[in-house]
Design goal:
- The chain is α/β, with parallel strands linked by helices.
- The protein has a single domain (about 10-145), classed as Rossmann fold (3-Layer(aba) Sandwich), CATH 3.40.50.
- Helix content is about 40%, strand content about 15%.
- The chain is built from five helices and five strands.
- α2 (about 30-45) runs parallel beside α5 (about 135-145) and α3 (about 60-70) packs parallel to α4.
Length: about 150
């Protein structure tokens, strides 16, 4: 990591470790490792480092958000299923007091009605949905512009 800047945290929720094989007609064939590589390259091009993490456990993601509060410059989060019901993640993001971009691979608004509610969006500065894996790069680009003013 560069000594002068805190990194951008990129956090991923449940089942995203299965990207590339789970419902490719919805989520595409890009793997989470592919996304991590693209995100790291985009951030590095702007002079930023990334901490990339995935967990199937809500509490682990809350721990990472709390860690980011003092260790990160901003957060990109794809909370996956936690989007729709995790008040704990909402509250952790609120306490973090950092710029947040929420990312979803699919357009959640064209899917089942229960996917239309996001507790995370209430804490996000921007939401990117339906851009596939490229949405992560868009999120990083948005944060680079935000962080560099």
């Amino acid at each position: 990591m560069t000594a002068s800047r805190r990194p951008i945290y990129v956090l991923n929720g449940p089942n995203l470790n299965l990207l590339g094989t789970r419902r490719p007609e919805v989520y595409g064939t890009t793997t989470l490792a592919d996304i991590e590589e693209a995100v790291r390259a985009r951030a590095a091009a702007g002079g930023w480092d990334v901490v990339f993490h995935q967990s199937n456990h809500e509490g682990v993601l809350v721990d990472r958000i709390q860690e980011a509060r003092t260790a990160a410059a901003a957060i990109v989060i794809n909370p996956a299923a936690f989007t729709h019901y995790s008040i704990a993640i909402h509250d952790a993001l609120e306490a973090a007091e950092l710029p947040v971009v929420e990312v979803h691979l699919s357009n959640v608004h064209r899917r089942e009605p229960f996917r239309h509610t996001s507790y995370v969006s209430l804490q996000a500065d921007a939401v990117i949905a339906g851009a596939g894996a490229f949405g992560y790069e868009l999120a990083v680009e948005h944060l680079l512009r935000t962080l560099e003013g």
